[in-house]
Amino acid sequence: MKKKILDRYSRTTDNKVIIDITAGKVEDLYNDLDKHAPFRKKELDQDLVEYLIDSVSEIGKEEFVIQFRFAVLTDTRLISRIKTSIHNYFQYLKVLELRDLARMARSSFILFSLGILFLFMSVWTNQKIAGHDGVITHVFAEGITVAAWVSLWSALTNFLINWVPHHQQFKMYERISRAEISFHETTKSNL
Description:
Blueprint: H1 2-7, E1 10-11, E2 17-23, H2 46-59, E3 64-70, H3 76-128, H4 135-177, E4 180-185
Parallel strand pairs: 2-3, 3-4
Antiparallel strand pairs: 1-2
């Protein structure tokens, strides 16, 4: 299946996958809501961002190049801004993902700490009521034990299971932000 997906992409002479993007003009790469803003203050078009993310997800660990094709090749100043826009936007997404990772680690630490506290309270409570036959005290002690294990389990699953997708997103955004970008003029044979 992976081979069929990779067959849909062209390759460079040094065997890098080409993520090909064709646009009429540079303005097509930016959000329509920012029509009157200068290019340096415009946000990338969300369809472009999603296409890049989907394409990099599809190709996996393959080396890639982002190739833009325009009807009329634009000047070097705008080409430089496009490269900067892509770099900055995906660096920004990387920072957001890092913030989510930090938030998740913090909540895992808090849950783990509460679990350890409840576990110590459970052991202490069970030792204190060892000779007593009260139903309420035994229910309370068991409740603390259950709370301890639920908190510990939640902390571990939150960190061990949820960490991987966030880390993968972080790495993908890093790859896109540092990707090689090339520009070409479209011809009738390229369409």
